[in-house]
Amino acid sequence: MIKVKKRKILLLPGDGIGPEVIREVKKIIEWFNKNKSLDFEIEEDLVGGSSYDKHKTPITDEVFYKALESEAVILGAVGGSKWDNLEFSKKPERALLKLRKELKLFANLRPAICFKQLVNSSTLKPEIVSGLDIMIVRELIGGVYFGEPRGIKPIDNGERKGINTHTYTSSEIARVARVAFDLAIKRKNKVTSCEKSNVMEAGQLWKEEVQIVHDKEYNNVELSHMLADNCAMQLLRNPKQFDVIVTDNLFGDMLSDEAAMLTGSLGLLPSASLGAKDKNGNMRSMYEPVHGSAPDIAGKGIANPIASILSFSMALRYSLHLDKEADNLDLSVQKVLDDGLRTQDIFSKGNKEVSTETMGNAIIANLQK
Ligand code: IPM
Ligand code: MG
Description:
Isopropylmalate Dehydrogenase, binds magnesium ion, two-stranded antiparallel ribbon, 14 strands, single chain, binds 3-isopropylmalic acid
């Protein structure tokens, strides 16, 4: 096998169960290095509350520059009640938002796939969710998350006013719409764009700009527009009507949590945050499990590492151009689920309950040399 050039992967395990699940990812990267003659250079550092505890900031400049220089960042999770009372700028979540914003990761891909082995874990009826395969494309660095002005200010009568601003420009909408259309072409060729154009000007602009990109560049893709509240309802009523959903930062945050729950297994869902492609098709990127830091089960060795492992698989596919290796990893995860191995979060009778580490080892054991 030909040696490929050294590629830097930055692991940021973060808080809560982050370190436990990223430990399994690290073992998998090491497996690929050894058995596939790949040459990933792994770096690891602190982010979120664990960084705050040591450095009094949720992300140091040094870590930020490491992220800038890496081919892919794999993040575990940040946050926990321990840091809830910190001032806003010191909160663990600020590290995540800084990485997204300053690496310009404008497109957040959140697949919601109902694994056939877990169709009974969903709170919805099996016939509604079996075979479900949706891709939510969430705009990640605009909208109300970042708009100015923002803040809390005193007003008359001793009252205070909280302000956040929801803004989007045409180009911010167009670039994320293109990501959605490009993905749809490789899937079922269908995009649903969600906004609140009935009440928000920025929503109206969203709808118009997505339509313009469609008409000019992607008129072979089926496009429909849906109000975000209706989308929330349709996701429960008939989720299989969707292929790719594209939406803004805040609606994307909510709709992706909802879609994740359809699958019955938050512990299985990966995500990718991608920047703009350069001339060679490379881009900045960060990969994270959709689940959070789950402080209640941290340190117990029972967290599900699959979402993180599948996040690394997305990194192999989208950033490292190693589709075959990604297929190898995905298949291995399927095999382990077929064999009935389950961490506690997805356990049901008749299966075998295993620890984080056992799950990781089993996935490695099933990788094809
Ligand atoms: C997510 C999370 C984050 C967000 C938080 C942790 C800042 O909910 O990635 O969906 O709101 O974007
Ligand atoms: Mg969220």
